[in-house]
UniProtKB/TrEMBL annotation, chain A:
This is Uncharacterized protein. It comes from Temperatibacter marinus. Residues 1-26 are annotated as: Disordered. It comes from the Bacteria.
TrEMBL record, chain B:
The keyword rRNA-binding does not apply. GO terms for biological process: methylation. GO terms for molecular function: methyltransferase activity. The keyword NAD does not apply. This is Class I SAM-dependent methyltransferase. Its EC number is 2.1.-.-. It comes from Temperatibacter marinus. Keywords: Methyltransferase, Transferase.
Length: 115, 403
């Protein structure tokens, strides 16, 4: 799928910024990143969905597996548990920074009042 | 939210391909499909929200504070840039363009050596390219990367690079939602039809297209006038190499490409060109350079020769201030620094100053010729994407006949 070329490393050039001042859309610079990251993630989700769609259609077209078979699939207990764990792992991966903040909170010494 | 009937842009895999067109894998195609649909959504579904937020809260707040209506598109921009909806819409639109560049560059650069080899072979075989590596880049190209293209039209990452041209060619179908056809030549086709059908006794023997980039608009003109000598001019070798290879790959033989700055066309003799054309190019220059170019266009044209420029309409008094503001978006968000000034200039006066009689002025609307394969129908209608629809304003003049 990737025929890397010899003369340049695309990774070093793909993300180049265009020359010229980039407008500020939000008061907090971090928001600019969050917006960009969100839209890129939406794009990559769309790309993954299109590939899955291709996969299902090609399987059906070539008589390997009808799409209805995929649609009606229900996991058995073990498979369901594996999938639940996969969800849990993904959630934890994405919420890393929130977990880290929680980890950093020290319990208050006895008797101190809320500020 | 009310929706008009949802329309979708044509899938990217239908884009017109040729021997130097980059090859895309399944995910790269999907990425372009997403971005084309994102553009359509931003234009049709969220786009009208800008007017709505202006009418319902931005303008009333301005009037309450100032005791008057906003008096210019710049005042509207200042207050709209504080509005949360417009900020999000603008940020989404800017990011979509940046992602389109990222997607195109990652697709092109992974296969750049193959593309360069193919292009070099095709161009050498056809001898349709004349480069001048010593040509100095004009400031308006060197200073800013137009429409957020990293490296703009001219940056060369490797010897004989064509990546700027290849990236432009594969991505314009995304930006326009296929509105200019599979080969993004619907505008050029419309111009060719105009010259053939609407102009009596116009039989151009020599045609020059200035700022031709990869030749999207010029190829249909060359095909419509197969006996004419057709020359594409640009300051960038990176797009011209691709243009020459693309023309050869698409078997258009009466065309050649030259690296020149149109402010100085001294290699082209006086009174020797029958038609000089620019298509969505003037707004990427500067006021000073544009005036110099106009004088050069007048000089090289034959008596009776045609000069035509395709642009978006000027902001005259008939264009409401809000529409001027939204049409101006690209100037401030899409690296188009001359856009806002150009559209308030009196181009008829500029042409007159260059020697074209006011009485010979021509002005008309141009719509891209629809592509029968894409079946997009009339693509220039009400869902116009503020300056990106495949509909333009043609302005120009005929050079006076010598008595």
């Amino acid at each position: 799928m990737t025929n890397q070329t010899a003369s340049i490393d695309p990774f070093q050039h793909v993300n180049a910024k265009s020359k010229g001042k980039r407008p500020k859309y939000f008061d907090d610079p971090a928001m600019e990143h969050l917006m960009s990251m969100n839209l890129s993630l939406m794009q990559e989700l769309a790309v993954t969905r299109e590939r899955l769609d291709s996969l299902e259609r090609v399987m059906e077209d070539t008589g390997i597996l009808p799409r209805s078979k995929i649609e009606s699939y229900r996991p058995d207990t073990i498979a369901a548990q594996e999938r639940a764990l996969a969800h849990r792992k993904l959630i934890s991966t994405v919420l890393r920074s929130v977990e880290q903040e929680l980890d950093g909170m020290k319990p208050r010494p006895e008797g101190t009042a809320d500020s | 939210m009310t929706h008009m009937k949802t329309t979708t842009p044509p899938p990217w895999h239908l884009v017109g391909k040729h021997d130097v067109f980059p090859e895309a894998d399944l995910d790269e195609i999907a990425r372009f499909n997403f971005l084309a649909n994102m553009n359509r959504y931003l234009a049709e579904t969220l786009g009208p929200g800008n007017k709505k937020t202006y009418e319902t809260r931005v303008k009333p707040a301005f009037e309450k504070r100032e005791g008057r209506e906003p008096a210019s598109r710049h005042e509207i921009r200042d207050v709209m840039n504080q509005d949360s909806f417009h900020r999000v819409w603008s940020a989404l639109k800017r990011n979509t363009m940046e992602q389109r560049q990222q997607a195109g560059r990652s697709l092109v650069l992974r296969q750049i050596d193959d593309l360069v080899n193919k292009a070099t072979a095709l161009t050498e075989e056809n001898g349709n390219l004349e480069l001048d590596p010593s040509l100095e880049l004009p400031n308006y190209v060197a200073g800013v990367d137009h429409h957020c293209m990293p490296g703009s039209y001219h940056t060369e990452l490797i010897p004989n690079d064509i990546s700027a041209g290849a990236n432009y060619d594969c991505g314009i179908f995304v930006t326009t939602g296929g509105a200019m056809g599979r080969f993004s030549d619907g505008g050029g086709q419309a111009l060719a039809n105009f010259a053939k059908n609407d102009l009596k006794d116009f039989h151009p023997k020599r045609i020059v297209d200035v700022g031709c980039t990869v030749g999207h608009s010029l190829l249909p003109i060359a095909k419509a006038f197969p006996d004419a000598e057709v020359i594409g001019i640009d300051v960038s070798g990176a797009v011209l190499r691709y243009a020459a290879a693309r023309a050869a790959a698409l078997d258009v033989k009466n065309i050649s490409f030259r690296q020149l700055n149109a402010e100085d066309l001294s290699v082209i003799p006086d009174n020797s060109v029958d038609w000089v054309q620019t298509t969505m190019f003037l707004h990427e220059t500067s006021e000073k350079s544009m005036r110099k170019m106009m004088a050069e266009f007048h000089r090289i044209l034959t008596p009776g020769g045609l000069m035509l420029h395709l642009e978006q309409p000027s902001y005259d008094d008939s264009v409401p201030l809000f529409e001027q503001f939204i049409r101006d978006w690209d100037a401030f968000n899409n690296n188009e620094p001359f856009w806002t000034r150009l559209h308030e200039m009196d181009l008829v006066a500029v042409m007159e100053e260059a020697g074209f009689h006011k009485s010979s002025h021509v002005e008309f609307k141009v719509k891209a010729v629809p592509d029968p394969v894409l079946a997009t129908g009339d693509v220039s209608g009400k869902s116009e994407d503020h300056g990106r629809a495949a509909a333009w304003h043609a302005m120009g003049a005929r050079k006076e006949m010598k008595g």
